[in-house]
Design a protein that fits this description.
hydrolase; 8-stranded antiparallel sheet; 21 strands; alpha+beta; 3-stranded antiparallel sheet; 31% helix; 21% strand; metal-binding; metalloaminopeptidase activity; globular
Length: 465
């Protein structure tokens, strides 16, 4: 679940409604050794511009999304003239190509087990004479720390590549008139194939959010929900993938009507501002202030009326840890908040929400999102149905979020009373949809970042956003 809702203090209620740096390090060291043998001097420089230029071709899987050539991926037609799926294509002596729609696991597309980098950024300079941000890039000590965590980074990059390819497919797939269940099932089925779902080792990290218009977050359709994505809707597509509990939390806003372009632009700009501001030793409250300044500099005209885009002040970004989507630290999107600092090797979801309404959300509509309490102690259960449902949750989701559709998929039946019992006892927490005032429109963008010792990696960045 992407959004972390926080309570608003009463006094605020009246306020206005790369190629891999690691690869460069290793190759750089090899070059130094070779040139020492030749008695030549070697300059050791790691230049982020070069890293970004190289990683631009890799961050979205390079050519992994190219369409298979006709001669190797023939399209067969049956008697009805319907096109069948293209066959998998493999270049002679090369790695396999992704199908369209995507169906080949990311691990198969990268047989060397090295997955594309995200966007590499320098850390912001804190203080006029602080050179530590730039020094991190060339520090041998920081490079060594980077290497120590490379296995973790690689797992996160695998989850990120599965997210990128899934969302890029779904952006092409969505059409006005589709039901939300149809969209969610297509997205989730695709992501499961690409991540190579394997119990709690690999899979979806939380239910697909597809919140419409005034609903900002935490809505996914329950069974039988016939809600349709209409031409004039603003929908936030928010989903997560994970490998061994290493979560990618990433979201975008999808619209068909261009009249919402300014709203979408404001929120995308605000999210990118938050990403640029984030870094080791940066205060969380300083990030929120910069996000709000950018967000609320935008206006959008809808049906002849002009609205200032407002940051939704009781929604936040958050830190992420293994199998724990909300790991304790919050990243505000308005000024104020905690003076806590970000730390080395932390993972964060930087997300922002903009609204044409009050800029405050509240619980509304039927609940669909649930998650086992990460810190819950042992609680004795008297109802056999509650014990059975908890076993299903532990086996299939652990402390990852889930929804009622996923309980259905796991084979649970007649679980409503048991689910309520688990919630009442604090074993499971419910997360109802979060809504601003009816008639307004909300938008969201979100990325997962890694605060590596040497640099900041926007691991979920793609060509789309």
């Amino acid at each position: 679940m992407a959004a972390l809702k926080t309570e608003i203090p009463e006094e605020q209620e009246n306020e206005k409604d790369q190629d891999d740096v690691e690869d460069e390090i290793e190759s750089g060291r090899t070059d130094v050794t070779k040139k020492k043998k030749k008695k030549k001097k070697k300059k050791t420089n790691v230049i982020l511009d070069e890293a970004n230029a190289t990683s631009d071709t890799n961050k979205s899987g390079g050519d992994a999304l190219e369409e298979a050539p006709a001669e190797n991926g023939e399209v067969e037609n049956d008697g009805e003239g319907e096109k069948k799926k293209k066959k998998r294509n493999r270049k002679k002596g090369g790695k396999p190509k992704q199908t369209d729609p995507p169906s080949i696991a990311i691990a198969e597309l990268f047989p060397d087990g090295v997955y594309p980098l995200g966007e590499i950024q320098e850390y912001p300079i804190i203080g006029k004479d602080d050179r530590s941000a730039k020094d991190r890039i060339t520090s041998e000590e920081k490079r060594a720390l980077d290497r120590m965590h490379n296995d973790i980074y690689n797992e996160v990059r695998l989850a990120a590549e599965a997210h990128r390819q899934t969302r890029q497919h779904i952006q092409r797939f969505i059409k006005p008139g589709m039901t939300m269940i149809e969209i969610c099932e297509e997205l989730e089925n695709t992501a499961r194939k690409l991540i190579a779902e394997n119990g709690l080792k690999a899979g979806l990290a939380f239910p697909t959010g597809c919140s419409k218009n005034h609903c900002a977050a935490h809505y996914t359709p329950n069974a039988g929900d016939k809600t349709v994505f209409e031409y004039d809707d603003v929908v936030k597509i928010d989903f997560g993938t994970h490998i061994n509990g290493r979560i990618i939390d990433c979201a975008f806003t999808h619209t068909f009507n261009p009249k919402y372009d300014k709203l979408v632009e404001a929120v995308r700009d605000a999210t990118n501002t938050g990403i640029r501001a984030a870094g080791i030793d940066v205060k969380l409250c300083d990030i929120g202030e910069q996000i709000q300044e950018v967000m609320e500099s935008y206006e959008v005209e809808l049906d002849g009326k002009t609205y200032q885009v407002k940051s939704i002040r009781n929604l936040n970004g958050h830190s992420i840890s293994p199998y724990r989507i909300h790991a304790g630290k919050t990243v505000p999107i308005v000024k104020g908040g905690e003076a806590t600092v970000m730390e080395e090797n932390e993972f964060y979801a930087i997300e922002t929400f903009g609204s044409t309404g009050r800029g405050v959300v509240h619980d509304d509509m039927e609940c669909s999102h649930y998650m086992k309490n990460f810190d819950v102690p042992y609680v004795p259960l008297r109802l056999q149905s509650s014990k059975g449902l908890l076993n299903v949750i532990n086996k299939n989701f652990g402390t990852l979020a889930f929804c009622k559709r996923w309980l259905d998929r796991a084979g649970a039946t007649k679980y409503q009373m048991a689910l309520k019992d688990l919630c009442d006892k604090g074993i499971v927490d419910d997360y109802p949809p979060l809504c601003d005032i009816k008639g307004c429109y909300t938008a969201q963008f979100e990325h997962t970042i890694m605060l590596r010792p040497t640099c900041k990696e926007v691991v979920s960045r793609g060509d789309d956003y």
